[in-house]
Amino acid sequence: MQQQTAAFQQAFRGTFSGVLRWEQLDELWARLRADADGWYLYAIGEPPPAETVDETVLLRFIEEIDVLLRREHQEDYCGIVYVDDAQSPTFVKIFDPNNLGVSCGYSDNPPLPGWILSRLPPSDLQAPMPQPGNRRRWWQRLFAS
Asked: Are 15 and 84 in contact (CB under 8 A)?
């Protein structure tokens, strides 16, 4: 378990590229849809998941988060999604458009994204503040049966 936590923390602090254009985000979503098995889906502020989500859940998340990002990040560029490898992603950080702070640059304590897609089991990133109520309801609605 401690090895998994260390691997996740190392990956979280690794090198990421920004998804700058909306077209690049579309390409990233297409890659994730094409390889939709084996992803952990983690909302910072919620308990980290112990299991990967099934394909249906991942596809629904991609659809819903895409709508949310485009509606609430009203810019002609994306710039709030970061990926470890755009061609073969294994770790994606998605920043909440309503809680950006400073999402770029270098820091020993980088700002936390709102959501993470990872091939590694997530460890708790200890959000400094709880998720806003509207985000928590949005997240819970995704998993309602």
From this structure: yes
Indicate the domain borders of the chain.
2-142
pLDDT at 4 over 50: yes
Which residues are bridge partners to 46 per DSSP?
44
Query: Tokens 């998994």 appear where?
Result: 4
Read off the pLDDT of residues 119-136 as tens digits, 9 standing for 90 and up. Answer: 999 999 876 666 667 777
Query: Which tens digits make up the pLDDT trace of 53-81?
Result: 999 999 999 999 999 898 877 766 677 89
Q: Is 101 left (phi over 0), alpha (psi -120 to 50) or beta?
A: left
**Distance (Å, rounded) from C-alpha 104 to C-alpha 101?**
9
> Which residues in 82-107 are b (16+ Cβ under 10 Å) and which e?
bbbebeebbbbbbbbbebeeebeeee
Please name the residue that has the structure tokens 């094409």. Answer: 34
